[in-house]
Amino acid sequence: MMEFGTRLRVAVFGSSHGPEVGVTIEGIPAGTVLDLRQIQSALDRRRPVGRRLATKRREEDRLVIDRGVADGRADGSAFRAHVRNEDVQRAPYDRLRTTPRPGHADYPARIRYGPDADLSGGGIFSGRMTVGLVIAGEVGRAILRPFGVDTVAYTRSIGPVEAEIDERLSLDELRRRAGANEVGCPDAVAATRMEAEIGRARREGDSVGGVVEVRTEGLPVGVGEPFFDSVESVLAHAVFSVPAVKALEFGAGFAGARMRGSEHNDPFIVVDGTIRTATNHAGGILGGLTTGMPVVLRAAVKPTSSIARRQRTVDLATRTETEIVVTGRHDPCIVPRAVVVLESAVEFSFADLLLRGGFRP
């Protein structure tokens, strides 16, 4: 079952080239204000339409609420919403029944589910499934709003191009700057270079990956469940559910392994009567619980697996080596469209953790 969460239970359904993709959610507090226009706006951020450097698949992604909402508020019943798949092309995937694409789930999925499993467009392993995550993320945002919790994600790097991010910027300013360019990066100079890097990969029939950074502010101290359901554990579970994510770090992350304790420890200080830390190498988390500092994570997104270059593979029917050229419509870089998806994964994770912990606005 493709489910996640404890108090806020999320399940995604559908497939890339099936009739629809969507989400069901149980546990939304009755009366939660659900702005359907905001959910649609988030879905539009995920769409490739209007992006010069994205796939040419044209999906409207019009939100359809099937149940769970009355007069703009959650009615206490199970929520269900979907969007229809309209621009479906199965022909390019017919050969994949016997020749798995390098970098995709085709091979293990064929072994697990058999030759008749529908893997058109990646099937249930496709990035198309993240439509449900985005809807769930906006529901999570609605639950978090009364707590004063806000989350923003943006592109930190694409290929070798690194952005310079001023950590003093407010989330609103980061959101505004990231929304001003196609790659979702708050650094305008780096954004231009990132666009050039993606364009170069596309012209060469190749792809490129990158890093998305997610920041959450306004969390009360003590959110999280020790050990198996620590903040890191829950966020990692959700973030690694996003196709193409291959690595994750919090705060200083891997750089912390090169620091000494005297460097990595965040000294406690008092600012206007509030306990804070002078630095945030821990990424706002200690012992699996939030500290009141911003929770900062970075997710590494691999290069898009579908590329126009000839690649080595095998024929599963004959057990012989062969070659394949992947056709169809694909992003040369999935990072810009993954920004809102990773933002959503963090939002519904924190909504679930706050509900589990019995926190009140």
Structure description:
The protein is an alpha+beta fold and 361 residues long. The protein has one domain (3-356): Chorismate synthase AroC (Chorismate synthase, AroC fold). The chain is 26% helix and 24% strand. It is built from 8 helices and 18 strands. The protein has helices at residues 36-46, 106-113, 130-144, 171-178, 188-203, 231-239, 261-264, 335-356, and strands spanning 3-4, 9-14, 20-26, 64-67, 69-70, 73-74, 79-84, 150-158, 161-162, 210-217, 245-250, 268-271, 274-277, 285-286, 289-290, 295-301, 310-315, 320-325. The strands form 6 sheets. Strands 1-2-3-7-4 form a 5-stranded antiparallel beta sheet, covered by helices on one side. A 5-stranded antiparallel beta sheet has the order 9-8-10-16-11. A hairpin with a 2-residue loop joins strand 8 and strand 9 (161-162). Helix 1 packs antiparallel against helix 8. The protein is globular. The two termini are 32 Å apart. The relative contact order is 0.18. The model has no long low-confidence stretch (mean pLDDT 92).
Brief characterization of the structure:
This protein is an alpha+beta fold.
- Give the C-level CATH assignment: Alpha Beta
How much strand content do the residues show?
15-25%
User: How would you state the average pLDDT, rounded?
Assistant: 92
Order of helices and strands: EEEHEEEEHHEEHHEHEHEEEEEEEH
Supply the number of structural domains. Answer: 1
Total number of helical segments?
8
Low-confidence stretches at least 5 residues in length (pLDDT < 50)? Answer: none
* Radius of gyration from the alpha-carbon trace, in angstroms: 21 Å
Helix content: 25-40%
Please state how the strands of the largest beta sheet are arranged side by side. Answer: 1-2-3-7-4
Question: Mind summarizing the main beta sheet?
Answer: 5 strands, antiparallel
Apparent shape: globular
Can you say what the CATH homologous superfamily is? Chorismate synthase AroC
Structural class: alpha+beta
Strand segment tally: 18
- In CATH, the topology is named Chorismate synthase, AroC fold
Using the 3D structure, state the CATH architecture.
Answer: 4-Layer Sandwich
Distance between the termini: 32 Å
